[in-house]
Amino acid sequence: MTNQVPVQKNEYIDVKFEDLTHEGNGVAKVDGYPLFVPNCLPGEKAKIKVVKVNKGYGFGRLIDLYEKSPDRVEPDCPIYKECGGCQLQHLSYPGQLKAKHKQVKEVLTRIGKLENVVVHPVLGMEDPWKYRNKAQVPVGEREGGLIAGFYQKRSHDIIDMEACLIQQEKNDKVIQSVKRICEKYGVQAYNEQTHKGTLRHIMARYGIKTGEIMVVLITRTPNLPNQNQLIQEIIDSNPDIKSIVQNINPKRTNVIFGDETKVLWGDEFIYDYIGNIKFAISARSFYQVNPEQTKVLYDQALKYAGLNGEETVIDAYCGIGTISLFLAQKAKKVYGVEIVPEAIEDAKRNAKLNGIENVEFAVGEAEKVIPKWYEDGVIADVLVVDPPRKGCDETLLQTIMEMKPEKVVYVSCNPATLARDLRILEDGGYTTVEVQPVDMFPQTMHCEAVALLVREKHSS
Ligand SMILES: C[S@@+](CC[C@H](N)C(=O)[O-])C[C@H]1O[C@@H](n2cnc3c(N)ncnc32)[C@H](O)[C@@H]1O
What we know:
The structure is a single chain. This protein is α/β, with parallel strands linked by helices and 460 residues long. The chain has three domains: 2-67, CATH 2.40.50.140; 97-126 and 290-458, Rossmann fold (3-Layer(aba) Sandwich); 134-276, CATH 2.40.50.1070. The protein has helices at 80-83, 93-110, 169-184, 227-237, 291-305, 322-328, 341-353, 366-375, 394-403, 415-427, and strands spanning 12-20, 26-30, 33-37, 45-53, 58-67, 118-119, 134-142, 145-151, 158-160, 199-206, 213-219, 241-248, 260-266, 270-274, 277-281, 312-316, 333-338, 359-363, 382-385, 407-412, 430-438, 448-455. The strands form four sheets. Strands 6-21-22-20-19-16-17-18 form an eight-stranded mixed β-sheet, with helices on both faces. The chain has a seven-stranded mixed β-sheet with strand order 9-8-7-10-11-12-13, covered by helices on one side. Strands 1-2-3-5-4 form a five-stranded mixed beta barrel. 44% of the residues are buried. The mean pLDDT is 94. One of its GO terms (biological process) is rRNA base methylation.
């Protein structure tokens, strides 16, 4: 590629797509200069309009598709193009799984220099729709009525939505019903420009195994008009609801939740199961949105851990202790560490709820707490990490290399940081045995993966 950018803004050009980015855009090259175009797939030929030109790459808009990929499908969702929640509905599900596999394989080679590591085919869902157990939608007003849905791509305009195809139908129905009832009782939508009005968001959570539903009304002010009748009508219209909660967020902010939460009716928690472990879920609890695939992911982590009941295990970045509780059933002792205090409260509650006693949870940064445990004589046989997208802190990786657990099981939601961290661990005496990607979020580009690393025999 020369230093000269070979395309101009607003130019129309014919291109052939070679690749897919991790955001789901097609990649076409003009004299080596990459152009990213939404809604285009590898192998396709199209006329595009160049809409943005940067020094090293540009963006385009699809104008005319001349040659379609055999993997292209017609998206079923009527608001797919506007919404932006899904990026891959125009790609068949087998095509999505292949694309995610390629993505993991490529970053492991490019960033991790791990060209020979076995990356298994992605474990996908039998039915890759209606899998989300949580819907959280902003509320607005149009022509005097309430609307609720998703923000249009790159804007704060709400698309009024009856159904989201990756959402559990129960949640969609509850949201529609709550919206209608709030409208009937004169609840005004919050207006972010004027900072007036009441109802900001509606959240519905569904326990897939228990059928229990929680509704959360996120409001600017504590008062809801006609509160008693409103609540009664919500309950009467939706018999599966076990809990109605109000969260009050008086601030001018994009952050959804405020600090004050109160139960308006029913229980503080709903319950759900992942495998045989029961979880109590409150309005603010973190809980995986696709529990069916979470079980697949954590079963894989458990398989890689290969426990026989004698091991000490550390679960770093443990959240509400989901993996810890899975592991504790097969280990001697599990230590979990997590930075969010409320998540650790949930983890402790969930351990109790399941009668699991061989776990110990600590609040703090994994990179500070684990070195302290190590100083105090805790040595893990197996160390599991499930960090946020930015990957593991380097101090933690250093501690792992000093502590030398026999196995490291790395659960990742970002293949790029996984690859970076695997390289560091490889250079520190570990070998990556294999990687198993799991599709937790069908129709989107997100990809999770579990990697098994073992300590090389000769590294003391
Ligand atoms: C991908 S989630 C793991 C979820 C967890 N395995 C579960 O199922 O609940 C990453 C977690 O790491 C936590 N976290 C982020 N930075 C951290 C740090 N420096 N030390 C410990 N936990 C951290 C986040 O709060 C989040 O709960």
